[in-house]
DNA sequence: CTGAAAGCGCTTACAG
DNA sequence: CTGAAAGCGCTTACAG
């Protein structure tokens, strides 16, 4: 841009002080006298001076940067990443920014290109790893990075033991969803979920659902998803399986919105009316649920809290004062898909 | 993590060479002899040594990092950011990574917190700015940053003159969409768009639509969106306006998928059958369109090309060899929403 | 082919 | 309250 980069020495010369005073003044060191600070700031502004963060970081050893890794399925198109993780990513970047940190973002999938040596390379002070549980290789990789001393906080990891993770309050969310269906008059409620999935979140949501059903003395019915399919196809297939089983049902609690979108589509194509014949509730609060037909009732984590909690947990880990906050609060967002049963055939 | 950070001097001592030789060997400098290189690499691996990028960057002046700024509406929830931009973001990060660059990502909306001095602060070598055209303050801010010498490439800017921008091949996409509706038997095709929006893309899509209609000798009909509403509500309102006008129509080309989702919802609630009574085609290729009811036909840019083109254009600008590639190729993705008219009432 | 040395632009003890 | 000086960990002319 310019021939000679403007440095703190140039500012010092213009302000008539030493370079170290410029550094102190700009860092807000209270030891600098007010008139001096004013002169320095004016000179810096005049020269359009900005601190070279590389030099500052080399000196201090801190980068002021957090790495955010979004794990996707190997070979998956970015367009097919669960929008939930994009919302979470946005919230994390915003929270980091509000804490004065930059965010170095990467989408990682293929085993050969996994890269997490951010701290060794002094590119970041710590990592936040989020994304699909399905890519086991990636999670193993980052677990190892963490075991070698890196600072990491997770959302979505299949591993819990000894790791710093944060998740939605899944049990509570599932209870809200189930209670809502019951309150709206549904009784034969099936749950599309996975019991043996590495996705711990699904298991937690299923557990919360079962607990709430038991309180009401209602029988439970689980339909296992086929994890090898794309999420929406999992929903379509689960509905087919549920219908093929011959057991009657008047509502479905689906442990993930993306799967629920497939459920709605399959029910529609089979001419089954939602919410009249079957009520549906999802989980995650993805935006397109609000514009599904009918609009999908869902349980939504507070994304802003999620971002803040992940960032703060990481910063505390880096500072050596670990926190034990783990659960992001959730709320039920009632929409048309669960309005109550009409006349059953 | 460790008391003493492992430096190239430690590697040098272990390998029995000088520090400068370590640097050359790890940089792949061909001047280093093969046996020496092997010894250095072994020592580096043994010590788990990684180059301190801060130090390297301070020395070379290059950061190997690109800043990616996603502009959103002021106060907008990250969950409400158009998923199109998230797909684009993912593609940009992947392309940058394949070119050996990191990506510093930020979501920016509020005027007070706009920040784009990445190059002055030596945090990045250049910027890619994408996002909603609606936040004029933000685009003004980045235009000024660019005028002050920063390297920037844009997608979505309301400004064209003198800027390095990339956009989808909107005219061609609109022609494909319109031709597809015509081929499927629709004739009275309305277009939900904006003629005076700062969104140049909408205008381009409308122009392409009109051109194709004219070729066929068909009359055109534009319904203006109300930009003050959320995208989906714009679609609902436009459908209401269209119907209220009393003019018959059997298809709608909507210049944006998010708006099209609202269109589908409104048509559904009014009991108008899609595609039997009205065919609908959108633009952008957002994922939830595929799971709308009925699944939405759309024009989709090649996201991977989009990411690569943005990154390469920026890298060329930085290198001082500007390119004039501007248009990302598009393709039509036919789905149920435009299958052809049934019997009109 | 390898080494000794300078220097990128800061922050921060240490003196005064 | 301010300044002179060291040093963070690299890369890269310059010598040999």
Automatic annotation (TrEMBL), chains A, B:
Keyword Cell division assigned: no
Domain of life: Bacteria
Residue ranges of domain HTH lacI-type in the record: 6-60
Family annotation (Gene3D superfamilies): 3.40.50.2300, lambda repressor-like DNA-binding domains
Pfam families in the record: LacI, Peripla_BP_3
Keyword entries, A-Z: DNA-binding, Transcription, Transcription regulation
The UniProt record lists the keyword Translocase: no
InterPro entries the UniProt entry points to: HTH_LacI, LacI/GalR-like_sensor, Lambda_DNA-bd_dom_sf, Peripla_BP_I
Sample GO molecular function, one term: transcription cis-regulatory region binding
Descriptive protein name: LacI family DNA-binding transcriptional regulator
UniProt organism field: Novosphingobium aerophilum
Lineage: Bacteria, Pseudomonadati, Pseudomonadota, Alphaproteobacteria, Sphingomonadales
């Amino acid at each position: 841009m310019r021939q000679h980069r403007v440095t703190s020495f140039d500012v010092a010369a213009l302000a008539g002080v030493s370079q170290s005073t410029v550094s102190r003044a700009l860092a807000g060191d209270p030891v600098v006298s007010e008139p001096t600070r004013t002169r320095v700031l004016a000179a810096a502004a005049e020269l359009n001076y900005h601190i070279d963060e590389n030099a500052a970081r080399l000196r201090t050893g801190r980068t002021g940067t957090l790495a955010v890794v979004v794990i996707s399925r190997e070979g998956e198109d970015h367009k097919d990443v669960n929008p939930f993780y994009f919302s979470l990513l946005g919230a994390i970047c915003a929270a980091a920014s509000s804490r004065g940190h930059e965010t170095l973002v990467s989408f990682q999938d293929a085993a050969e290109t996994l890269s997490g040596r951010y701290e060794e390379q002094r590119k970041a002070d710590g990592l936040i790893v989020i994304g699909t549980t399905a890519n086991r290789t990636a999670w193993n990789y980052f677990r190892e990075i963490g075991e070698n001393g890196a600072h990491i906080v997770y959302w979505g990891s299949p591993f819990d033991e000894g790791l710093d993770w944060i998740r939605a309050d899944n049990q509570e969310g599932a209870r809200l969803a189930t209670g809502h269906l019951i309150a709206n008059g549904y009784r034969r409620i099936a749950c599309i979920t996975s019991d043996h999935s590495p996705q711990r979140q699904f298991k937690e949501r299923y557990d919360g659902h079962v607990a709430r059903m038991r309180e009401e003395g209602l029988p439970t019915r689980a339909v296992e998803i086929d994890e090898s399919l794309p999420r929406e196809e999992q929903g379509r297939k689960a509905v087919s399986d549920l219908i093929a089983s011959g057991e009657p049902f008047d509502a479905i609690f689906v442990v993930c919105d993306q799967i629920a979108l497939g459920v709605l589509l399959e029910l529609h194509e089979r001419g089954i009316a939602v919410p009249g014949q079957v009520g549906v509730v999802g989980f995650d609060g993805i935006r397109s649920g609000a514009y599904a037909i009918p609009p999908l009732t869902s349980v939504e984590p507070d994304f802003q809290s999620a971002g803040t909690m992940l960032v703060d947990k990481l910063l505390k880990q880096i500072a050596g004062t670990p926190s034990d906050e783990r659960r992001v609060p959730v709320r039920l967002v009632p929409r048309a898909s669960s309005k109550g049963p009409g006349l059953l055939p």
